[in-house]
# Entry
Amino acid sequence: MAKPMLEVKDLKAHFFIEAGSVKAVDGISFTLERGETMGLAGESGCGKSTTAYAILQLMPYPGKVVEGEVILDGIDLVQRSPEEMRKIRWKEISICFQGAMNALNPVLRIGDQIMEAILLHEDISQDDARRKMEDMLETVGVDPTRADNYPHEFSGGMKQRAMIAMALVTEPKVIIADEPTTALDVTVEAQVLKLIQSLQKKYNLSVIMITHDLATIAEACDRVAIMYAGKIIEYADVVTIFKERLHPYTEGLIRSVPSLLGSDHLVSVPGSPPGLVFPPEGCRFHPRCPIASEVCLQKEPVFREIRKKHFIACHHAEQMWGKDVWK
Ligand SMILES: Nc1ncnc2c1ncn2[C@@H]1O[C@H](COP(=O)(O)OP(=O)(O)OP(=O)(O)O)[C@@H](O)[C@H]1O
Ligand SMILES: [Mg+2]
# Structure
């Protein structure tokens, strides 16, 4: 079998604050194949954006990648120098930041910002870069004659498209889209999503789509990782996640959304996510889990492959078969 495009192994990224270390990403592992879209979902604060920053070696202060490997096409990004990373970032792997509205520089013209990304990575003339920028704008559905506009002259949807253009213009192999549609209204959201899907097919991109919108995941992703308190607790293909999930948290999360499959009986997971400086011992989900037992309080569940390509971290996953634990 071909090597995966991206392999994340036991990655840990913490923020070091006065109260201690915030274990925002605390030992996650997954693989992403070529041309595949992976959804990364979970409640606010569970570590989704931090995962993106840790992969790109862009951890904001006071954060640091403390352990693990991020192997992109055979190269471990954690071991690269900042200088080497500057060459790899955008060219090999790029990101659409959460809140694209603020990620664009307000005092620079949209076209110039995209050209800057091209010129930084490619040895081409100003004219060729301009042509490439205009082509890319066209591809993402922005009229190239608007290239000389400033961000404030663009609508939310157009800014998001410009951000996508910027992330793609350097032709990376992997793109991380952090909540690419959250700030948009429903019709624009659908358009941007379709756009990402079509570009993904066109360029055979591998995509990590971060979102807390499970409907988006159902529509756009091949595989889904569910995160809870700095850990991935379940990872499987999208059909398995929606039809045969085995983690009580995944079950609760999906059944808390009225419009989703299998939500005939609505569930709301009690309580709220734990603090990440002193997360609960054992399984981090145990204080909110309907089937937690003694072992869950004491022992952290191993993230294991319960069936082919279905990974889970739960002591009682087998017990979940055909049972309604949230009754
Ligand atoms: N700069 C920082 N300093 C300290 N703690 C941080 C910092 N940035 C994030 N955190 C903490 O790390 C944890 C994970 O945050 P992160 O932004 O990755 O969550 P998220 O899943 O992306 O949430 P959202 O859905 O709201 O975007 C949170 O507990 C957050 O408070
Ligand atoms: Mg986030």
Observations:
- The longest strand covers residues 20-32.
- Residues 231-327 form one domain.
- The mean pLDDT is 92.
